[in-house]
Specification:
alpha+beta, Aminopeptidase, 12 helices, nine-stranded mixed sheet, 417 residues, globular, single chain, five-stranded antiparallel sheet, Alpha-Beta Plaits
Length: 417
């Protein structure tokens, strides 16, 4: 008989954590979450969740990049653990579920095992990772990328936010610069439950997604240098307008996605555009902006990035500007472990939960751990077309419970292998 969690306790924990860093959206009046990585609100969220870990009888450790691990022993002390986790940091305009469901759902699974006196052969480790979102320090999945070896620790420490504040100094300030070294942890398997952050599951009336992998992702940071000038007295032919240059790149990305030349699923976004001096009557002298490229096909991703970089050169000539760019993040298409996908499917079937295979459009910590161990993900649907990174983000109590009940059954199977 499949075990099931206390769905009200899980949902209550999500709401309580969501109160930390909460704000009221001025446009809609909805309550959202702003818990940027390594801010005071992130510190307070970390303290709350770490306290819950300890109350559940778990041994807690913190590594050198601030990742938090909570261990439940298995009957075989030498066996590699099964890890469940995600993140509790947020974008500035978040809801209560992104990342948090994976962490608090894992905690609820362990609470259920404790209450029902269920032992497992392998230890179970719950984890939450530093700055998964990448909004503050410019690289997504920062903590898990360091833990799994993709990003060197010193490189991560040196990353700074817009105010020049470094990752290491903020870890020290909030008290989460841990002593555990990077590298020793090698899980048997990694499992993550997450909200879909998209409309597919809800539109198909499905209860759950068995995630097959994550599409390729590439981020650029651009510094476009033109020349500030008076908006009224400077003829158009004399201008070196960094704002126009950034707009051309943004529109070019939209043209690329519509062309079909890079496959039907290419996505491109210029999410940050910061002109200087940012005045109504001054031609922008510089623009700092970002480029977010995604594609489920690695070859197509390579071509679209190469073509966009070539277009930067064209814009420089056309607008008389210079463009400095750097690649802030790059991850290839990831394929999750087929055997865990099958276990998830069987677990959902046992619980009578309707499910389908689905590819993730967003990056997740699971893709980093897939380089070290067999890994997989479970998606739960969201209301309002699955909107996320928005205060309207909402998965119901039942939707969350379906995902974590499936994860619990899968966890027990993995932890007894």
């Amino acid at each position: 008989m499949a075990q099931t969690i206390d769905s009200k306790r899980l949902y209550g924990a999500l709401q309580e954590l969501g109160d930390i860093g909460s704000y009221t959206d001025a446009t809609t009046g909805l309550v959202g979450v702003n818990r940027l990585a390594l801010t005071d609100s992130d510190r307070d969220g970390r303290r709350l969740v770490t306290g819950w870990f300890k109350e559940a009888g778990l041994s807690v450790s913190i590594d050198a990049i601030g990742n938090v691990y909570a261990r439940r022993d298995g009957t075989d002390a030498d066996a590699a653990p099964v890890m469940m986790g995600s993140h509790i940091d947020s974008v500035p305009t978040a809801g209560k579920f992104d990342g948090c469901l994976g962490v608090l759902g894992a905690l609820e699974a362990v609470r259920t095992l404790n209450e029902k006196n269920i032992t497992t052969k392998r230890p179970i480790v719950i984890a939450f990772f530093t700055d998964e979102e990448g909004c503050r320090f410019g690289t997504d999945m920062l903590g898990s990328a360091v833990a799994t070896g993709r990003i060197p620790l010193d490189e991560a420490y040196a990353k700074c936010d817009r105010d020049g504040i470094s990752v290491k100094s903020e870890l020290e300030r909030i008290g989460f610069l841990g002593e555990e070294p990077i590298g020793p942890l090698k899980p048997h398997a990694y499992l993550e439950c997450h909200i879909e952050q998209g409309p597919l599951l809800k539109s198909k009336d499905l209860d759950l997604g068995v995630v097959t992998g994550v599409q390729a992702i590439c981020w650029h940071e651009l510094l476009i240098k033109g020349r500030s000038a008076h908006a009224g007295t400077t003829p158009m032919s004399f201008r070196k307008d960094a704002g126009v240059a950034s707009a051309k790149i943004n529109l070019r990305m939209r043209e690329m996605t519509a062309s079909g030349d890079y496959g039907p699923d290419m996505r491109a976004t210029m999410g940050a555009i910061r002109p200087t001096p940012d005045m109504i009557n001054v031609v922008p002298g510089t623009v700092t902006c970002t480029v977010d490229l995604r594609n489920p096909d690695d070859d197509a991703m390579k071509r679209q990035e190469e073509d966009l970089i070539a277009f930067y050169k064209e814009v420089e000539k056309e607008e008389g500007v210079s463009i400095e760019w750097k690649r802030a993040a790059q991850t290839p298409r990831i394929r999750f472990n087929e055997s865990i996908q099958e276990t998830i499917s069987r677990s959902a079937d046992d619980l009578g939960i309707k499910h389908e295979r689905i590819l993730s459009g967003a990056g997740h910590d699971a893709q980093e751990w897939s380089h070290l161990c067999k890994s997989a993900m479970i998606f739960v649907p969201g209301e309002y077309d699955g909107i996320s990174h928005n205060p309207r983000e909402l998965s119901t109590e039942k939707q969350c419970a379906d995902g974590i009940n499936t994860a619990l059954t899968t966890l027990i199977a993995l932890a007894n292998e």
